[in-house]
Amino acid sequence: MDQLARPALPFSGHDAVEAYLSDGYDRVVGMSSRFAAAICARLLRLQTEEGLKGPIAEIGAFEGRFFIALAHALEEGEIALALDIFSWPDPGVEQRFEANCDRHGIGPERRRTIKGDAGAMAPADLLAQADGDRLRFIHIDGEHSRVALGRDLALATACLAEGGLIVLDDMLHPGYPTLMVAVQAYLEANPDIVPLCIIDRETIVGATKFVLCQRTWFERYQTRLLDIFKDFVWPLGADFEPHWCLVLSQDTRLAEIV
């Protein structure tokens, strides 16, 4: 789709993120959407407004497209952790990741690159990379299997700060239909964690994301989201039986029933 014909994006809350999304995001190889990046950057701003601070992490940083957007949304002194095996599709991906970060303004002082399998990492080791601070935002975009997602979710939950958010990529993707099985099992085993919102897909490649939060923070976040993203709220929402949450979409129309 031509850039001029794209639907409007929500304001990310950060001038640096806006500049990157308008000129840079599409030039970094990756599969996440600009719509989701704008929303997640605004969620980071919302956390700051709510008094939350600290490091963030992405599991599955690849060449850095989404990671750079998140890192631009951090406050002074906060760091972003990039976890990846950095061997797919070839060993040069780590070098491309580092070059993309440098090219788009995320210098070594603002990021930490961790090469390895997140699923094999102990929570204490990940927290040590964050100087002992718990993570306020974790984006999971690692290996797309039920087992791997379950491990990544366990790691994220163990490292999550009070009020933190976990964002899951490629949910409801036609290429990975069993990921939802892992999510449902996780939610049933962790009743203190609930879906906060669904970020609708931009394309099949830029697929749906689920945003999870602690149950005690749900109403606090939802109240703000209803105001911040009022132009992007799909009216019917999402039914997780019995939990209900927002759906944020660029297309908020309802089906016509005649």
TrEMBL record:
The species this protein was found in: Bosea massiliensis
Gene Ontology BP annotations: methylation
Keyword Metal-binding annotated: no
Keywords: Methyltransferase, Transferase
A Pfam family per the record: Methyltransf_24
GO molecular function, one term: methyltransferase activity
InterPro entries listed in its UniProt record: SAM-dependent_MTases_sf
Methyltransferase is among the record's keywords: yes
SUPFAM superfamilies: S-adenosyl-L-methionine-dependent methyltransferases (SSF53335)
UniProt-listed Gene3D superfamilies: Vaccinia Virus protein VP39 (3.40.50.150)
EC numbers: 2.1.1.-
Protein name: Class I SAM-dependent methyltransferase
